[in-house]
Amino acid sequence: MPQLKKILFVLLAVAFLAGCNKAKNDNTAENKTTDTKPAGEVIKVNLPTMQCATCKKNIETALKKVDGINSVNVSVKEKIATIDFDKSKINQDKIETEITHVGYDANGKKKDEVAYEKLADCCKIGGHDN
Ligand SMILES: [Cu+2]
């Protein structure tokens, strides 16, 4: 019986050490991701065709679903989107394209006309001019 206990103890010790090493490795990997996060890019994208708070919601909701985008904040007043993204997963060009797919111009890229037609009337150009 003591023999069995000893074996169990050794096994546990080995498992513990292995677990520790694994945790250490995980930590290193985690630190790396944390390191890349602040280095993660923040860009501002001009949204010249957006009109209102619904546009803001449309763009933010769509972009938040995109893999690699950490956060999105659209200013209705300035017509600018501030986007924090992981540059190992996505780049500015792709982000601009995603915005055009929602139906809005993004910097120099022209909106997808099909998506634009589906927007609420108030979100179309001049939708708030009466
Ligand atoms: Cu709108």
Question: Would you give an account of this structure?
Answer:
By secondary structure, the protein is α+β, with helices and mostly antiparallel strands. It is built from 4 helices and 3 strands. The protein has helices at residues 2-39, 53-64, 92-102, 113-118, and strands at 41-46, 69-75, 80-85. A 3-stranded antiparallel β-sheet has the order 1-3-2. Helix 2 packs across helix 3 (92-102). It is elongated, with a radius of gyration of 24 Å. The model is unreliable at 19-37 (pLDDT under 50). The structure holds copper (II) ion. Residues 51-52, 54-55, 122-123 line the site of copper (II) ion.
CATH architecture of the largest domain: 2-Layer Sandwich
Helix content: 40-55%
Seen as an oligomer or otherwise, the chain set is single chain
Compute the separation of the termini in Å. Answer: 90 Å
Specify the structural class.
alpha+beta
Compute the number of strand runs: 3
- Sheet with most strands: strand arrangement: 1-3-2
Largest sheet properties: 3 strands, antiparallel
Q: Poorly predicted ranges (pLDDT <50, ≥5 residues)?
A: 19-37
Compute the average pLDDT: 83
Small molecules in complex = copper (II) ion
Tally of separate helices: 4
The total domain count is 2
Tell me the β content.
Answer: 5-15%
CATH topology of the largest domain: Alpha-Beta Plaits
Radius of gyration: 24 Å
